[in-house]
Amino acid sequence: MGRLAIIAGSGQLPVHLAQAAPDALRVGFDGIDTEVALHHRFRFEHLGGMFDRLKAEGVSRLVMGGGMSRPALDPTLFDAGMAEIAPRLLRAMAGGDDGLLREIIAIFEGQGLRVVGAHEILPDLTARSGLLAGPDPSDAQLADLRRADAILGALSPVDVGQAVVVEGGLCFGVETIQGTDALLGFVAQTPAHLRRGAGVLVKRPKVGQDLRVDMPSVGVTTLDHLQRAGLAGLVISPGTVLLIDSETLLTEADKRGLFILARRPE
Amino acid sequence: MGRLAIIAGSGQLPVHLAQAAPDALRVGFDGIDTEVALHHRFRFEHLGGMFDRLKAEGVSRLVMGGGMSRPALDPTLFDAGMAEIAPRLLRAMAGGDDGLLREIIAIFEGQGLRVVGAHEILPDLTARSGLLAGPDPSDAQLADLRRADAILGALSPVDVGQAVVVEGGLCFGVETIQGTDALLGFVAQTPAHLRRGAGVLVKRPKVGQDLRVDMPSVGVTTLDHLQRAGLAGLVISPGTVLLIDSETLLTEADKRGLFILARRPE
């Protein structure tokens, strides 16, 4: 196996990846903050230069980790390699996340780079099945879970909605491009007269979501937002959702009385 | 035909209904503000008393108009009539809007009261087909419309989403229990680096939505929120979405350069 490269975005995930693979080449992008010390940093417009660099350093596999926002691209800055792939990339950027990320994988693999998932480098970072922290969810919360899964199931074919909030049978929010924290911020603003106790956040990969580049994750900041949104807990899929800094996450959830349940959809 | 009763909620719709049917009995609920001068006001817990009053006044038809939030009910205050229907009502309140409103219609009709839609009293209040105001939507915005309709179509079977915002092919928000204005407030907070020009709000009845009690509506305040959200315009279904104060609405949309397009889904 050739050398591994980590494409590092924001948050704790790339830090864990770098610890697990200390020999990996760490690269990042201008405009994307990362807590990892990078070997190389590129403009998005210079992807051609990045591919050349990865090959020159003997990289044959890469893993993407951490948050990465969709960049505004300046076509006048494209290098030759980027100019070649830009039409595919821009077409895919007009669609949902899944389509874009599938295209990015195809582009990397067209360069002879195999894309691996963060869960392959860090298998312990995903949840095992069961109640991981906090109190047992109530029957009403389990009913909310089933309703959330019906909504996620309906949305999956149109590539929307990695997370849904349901409370007392009512849908309080659907995750869109702004992400889970923004969704929970929206739920927190729900007028009191609409609230129906303490509902649940259900977060799962969409059907067909490629976990190699886009793995749902939860961390302590998710708990902060969950608490501010007045929810009782969090349901995730075992094996396919990353627990960022899992020891602290589970301890904190216990301490705050928030449940974390890893269970497949029925 | 017996006398008409207007069950008045917030906003301009009950005002228009009261003007169009000056002989109607106007009733409302404690905790629901309305701009209509009411003949009678009831607690939600006293629905039995309301039915008796409507019958005593010779009412045989009723129309519901305006915003009405889901109330928190105090069972210790239920009158006899309410105690009888409460189990059905509470069960339905745990579900989506459609189920609840279907149940409310069934309860009214079980009392011998025929429920009519606001569009039957005020047919001129719904949109005719075509571009009603503002500039022609761009090709990108028409593509956003098609993507929004795909999302609304996927959500319809699970009784979520009377409106969706799409911009540059990306879903920026799905209407949930908090309503259209809250959805647009959420979209307004989208970080600039995620924005893709000026997208569209698409608002339609859900498949199977009973227009007699739950008709989507747009008004000048919708334009205010649309503008703050940085969107280019609004697509609605002809014949089934109420235009509140339509003359002002269309003039204002023209003035602000926001399009209003009434077009069925493809």
Protein architecture, described:
- The structure is a homodimer of 266-residue chains.
- With 266 residues, chain A is an alpha/beta fold.
- Chain A has nine helices and 13 strands.
- Chain A has helices spanning 13-20, 47-56, 80-93, 97-110, 118-121, 139-155, 180-188, 220-228, 246-256; strands at 3-8, 25-29, 40-42, 59-65, 114-116, 130-133, 163-167, 170-174, 200-203, 217-218, 233-236, 242-243, 259-262.
- In chain A, the strands form three sheets. Chain A has a six-stranded mixed beta sheet, sandwiched between helices. Chain A has a five-stranded parallel beta sheet with strand order 3-2-1-4-5. In chain A, strands 10-12 form a two-stranded parallel ribbon.
- In chain A, helix 2 packs across helix 3.
- The N and C termini of chain A lie far apart (39 Å).
